[in-house]
Structure formats: structure tokens, C-alpha cells
Amino acid sequence: xxxxxxxxxxxxRLRKYRPDIQGLRAVAIMMVVSMHVGILDIxxxxxxxxxxxxxxxxxxxxxxxxxxxKVSLSKFWARRFRRLAxxxxxxxxxxxxxxxxxxxxxxxxxxxxxxxxxSLSVINWRLAENGTDYFANDGxxxxxxxxxxxxxxxxxxxxxxxxLVAVAWISRLIFRNRFLxxxxxxxxxxxxxxxxxxxxxxxQPLAYFxxxxxxxxxxxxxxxxxxARFVSRMPRGLAGVVSWLGLGTLLVTSMLITDETPLPGxxxxxxxxxxxxxxxxGCANPRLGAEKILDNPVFNFIGNVSYGWYLWHWxxxxxxxxxxxxxxxxxxxxxxxxxxxxxxxxxxxxxxxRFRDNVKLVLSPWRGILTGGTLTATAAVATTxxxxxxxxxSLATSGSAAAAGFGGTESVKQAVSTxxxxxxxxxxxxxxxxxxxxxxxxxxxxITGYSLRDECVMGDKEADRTMVLMGDSHAYQWGNAFNxxxxxxxxxxxxxxxxxxxxxxxxxxxxxxGREYTECTSWRKTALDKIGEIDPDVIVVxxxxxxxxxxxxxxxxxxxxxxxxxxxxxxxxTPYPNFNVPDCLxxxxxxLSNCSPKAENxxxxxxxxxxxxxxxEDNGFKVIDTIPAFxxxxxxxxxxxxxxxxxxxxxxxxxxxxxxxxxxxxxxxxILAG
Length: 674
Fold this sequence. Notes:
The protein is mainly α.
């Protein structure tokens, strides 16, 4: 009888329905939405959701393993499909339609590639590979970007049941208990946390989006589910204190995280620990725990529609400025939050409940899997077909427009006079975003040392004379021009270029890495050493000037190059429009004049450029001013000689660069003759 009463009390504590978890789900989504739309600077909502998912799914799987010794994969995956696939598919397809109508045509292409990855639950890896800055506020975000966390969860759902069954079977066979399961889960938590922490310092996007750096948060919830029986035995008074401390930990640590905090790192451990304490305390069913706040009709309702709110808030936020065609205002933050909330309510009652509670799908797991698979495939096919749809161009293009590019400074003046209605072929406009140059090499962000490779050599590769082009991506953009120049002047041209890395010695901090760009420092040293070994006849330096540049840093590099004995050339930086030029041209025919900004607005960091130029001149560099090849009469036209000048917000197209061979040739003929 005593044992029966003890079991009954324990069963009362380990409840099937947890109103505190439902309330915590509401808190998590409110944190996510308020942070994303800019109402409240509070982070960690996704981390709380990871812990909740791990605990709930872990509880289901462990209970089934205890009862039957196995897991019905068909039933498990059918439940996941019924819960997730309908809403995701509808959101993906609806976002594609809205993007085609309102977003810029070229951005639409990237959106659909993201949509395809989102439909297959692998967008987190696409974002990691692209080095996406999740907290960027520059218009580069995709409306599908938020699917990264759902992708990690769904990848977990595929692996977790198989892994847990295997480890539980081995643990029973050897230890006749769950010991090995606990060891396995702790190993996953520890290993994943370590990878996330260390990668945050070296490759922040990979650490932020990758499954192996985030899976510890979900696994932490599974570990809590494994220990739920033990945790439920704690005194209820203590359990209440633990749950309140957990709520405080969650809120305080979430507000201490800012956009500058390197994430995930160790910072996400705060929200994870807070959520874990709330759930752990609730396992004992305390009478005066945090459930007193979390269990209320409002939170219960928000928890019910939380999945739909998560799906809808981000696409609405990203597409809102495109729909209204104006800047995002403070009041728009609340409009986005409320509109996406109403969409979530509609989807919950019209879509989610219809699939989740469908008797036929519940009784036939394979029918549920087939239905979910069909919806997923539909979203994937829709986004793939969308890439084949003709772009929604509003620019009246001319199929026979001349495409000569730069033809002297007079061609730039001519472009300024016609910048409100430039002559440009549809082919030239459509190819502009991918017209990024064909020659030269560029090392990516994480490369720490320069090595001379075949693709780094261009121009006349058999020539006796050698020219080195050194800089960052603003040097790489000149590749087509220097290849043609090398062929014409019989010079071998070697590119020594690294993304975002200026040749001048000074500290660079990159937001996308969340730290100092140490790879640039080490790469620069090896690059300068290699240039000394090459012993070139001419060295050309060009790059985007940084705000952290110093006279001493520029002087150090220029003196090192001067010591080589080569002829030195400083190519001033090209204009910096700071908006996507092809998008501007294609999006709205009545705003084409805005695509050709005033010259005074596109000379990036003028005071630093002047200082760097002065240091170059002091060290014997011949300075070539590039502005006349881009600007005239106070404006910098977006189209010159039938060519779109830029393929993005600051880098010139490969075709326009090739046309600038004639701009460079006279100066370099004189330099080589000397």
C-alpha cells in the first residue's frame, strides 16, 4: 500500500499535460518576435525552444522505449509531419508568391534558393556556408532565414529515435539500466557545447547555424527528460524555488545578450539553464512555482499558435518594406507583430488542427508520412519552378542597346546625361548580378596564409615582366581589366588578394565573424613575404579603405613594398553606392535616377582615403585616380556604355572592368617604359 501511494504521488507529479511548459512556449515565441521586430532587445527565445523540443520529444521516445523496448518510427515521424509540414509548406509557398510580387527581381532568385533549402530542412547549412550574419540589418536577410532552427530540430527528429533506441538497448544489455543513455547524452551535450564555443571564436556563422554546434541545447532537454523521475522527487518547496530562479535566470541572461555578443558561444547557456530549471522545477508539480505566472489563458492561447507565429513573423518582417515601399518605422514593428500573430491564428485553426487531429492520418501513420512528404515535396518543387519564372522586370530595356562599356570620360558624361533612362539590354541587366569577373584569385575569410596558385596568374603568363595586384575584393574586381592589360602589354599579372583584408597594417574587426579579423593579419605577412620572393617589376595596391586605418599602418606596408625595388602604383578605390544597383535598375522604372547617386555620396570614407593616398605618395607610389572612370558632372551613373557598372552595392561587374583596360593602359605603358 505504501508503494502504491508513493507511485501515485509520483504519477501526480509527472503530469501528462504541463501548463508551465505551454506557458514557457509562449514566453519563447514572444521573446523571438519582440527581438526580431525590434520591440524589445531580448535574446534566447530559440534556445528555450530547443530545450522544450528536447524535453518533450525525449519524454515521448523514452516512455515508448521503456514500454516496448523500441520506437515506432512510422508513428513518430507521422506525428512530426502532421505537426510541422503543413504550416511550413504553406508559409514557404505563400512567401514565394509575395516575394515575386513585391521583392526585387534579383533578390527573388536568392530567396527561392533559400526556400528550396528551407523546404528540405537544410537551410541552416546553406546559411553557414554563405557566412550569413543573422543579426545584420542591411537588407540582406532572406524571408526564409528563420527556418534554420526548424531545420536543426527536424534533423534531430530523424536521428534521435534511432540513436536512443540503439544506445538504450546496449545499456540494458550491459548495465540493465539507463546508465549508458545518460553517458551518451552528456557526451553529446559536452562535445557540441565545446564545438559551439570554440567555433564562435573562429567561424561565427558556422557556429551559429550548424547542427553539431547547436544540438547540445536540444539534447540537454532530452537529458532532463531522462532524469525527470529523479527530479520529480525533490521537495515541492524546493521545486518552486528552482522554477522561480529558472524564470529569473532566463529573463536576466536573455537581456544581457546583445547584438555584439558572440553567439552561440557560452552566452546561450544562460537561457538554456533558465528554461531547464523551470521545466525541472515543474516536474515536482509545486503549488507555488513559476507555473503561477506561466499558467494563464493568454499564454495558453499564444502557446497554441506559437508555431504559426514563428513561421509568419519573419517573412512579414522582411517583406514589409517591399510591400509598403518605404522605410521601416517604429510603429511598423507592432504592425508586423500583430499581423503575423493573426496569420498564425488563422493557420492554427484552418490548417494545423485539421492535419493534427485528422482521424485517418492518426490511425494510419504511413498515410501521415505520405501526406507530409507530399507537402514538403510540393514546397520544394514550387520554389524550384519559381526560379524558372521570368523575372518581374519593370525597366523598359532595349534589346539592341550598345554595350561598349567605358569609352573615355566622354562616355561617362554621356551616361550621366541619360541616367534617368539609360540604354541597357535585357541580357546585360539579367546577367549583371552574376557578372563578377573571370580572372584572378581571392582567398576567403578563413584562409590564414597566401599561396601562389595557377588561378592567381593571368595576363601574358609567359612574359618576362611581372606585375602584382594586391588588395581585397575591391582589387579582385579589377581582374578582367588587368588580365586584358597583361595580354596587351606582355606582362604576367599575379593577384595577391584576400576578402575583406586590406594590405595596410591595422586592426580589422568583422561583424560577420564577431571578432578581430586575425586571419587577415597572418595572411598579410605571408603575402608580403611572397611578393618579396616574386620580385615583381610593378606592384599595384588597391582596396576599400577601413575606418580603423592608420597612417602608421599604411606607412609600414608601403615601406615594405618600396623595399622590393618595384615600380609602385596606388589605384584609388572605386565608388561605393551602398545599395544593390541591379536591383535598383530592375525594381522600379520610375526611380532609375536614384540608381545613379551623387558623386559626393559614394566616395567612401573620404578622409581616410585622402590620408592613405598621401602616405602612398610619400613612399613613391604613382597614384591613379579611378573616379573619372565612374563619375562625371557630380553623378556616378549605374549604366555606362550599355554595361551595368556594379553587380552589387560596391563591386563593379566583370564586363565593365574589362572595358576599363583602355582607362588603365596609358598609365601602365608609361610605368613599364620607365
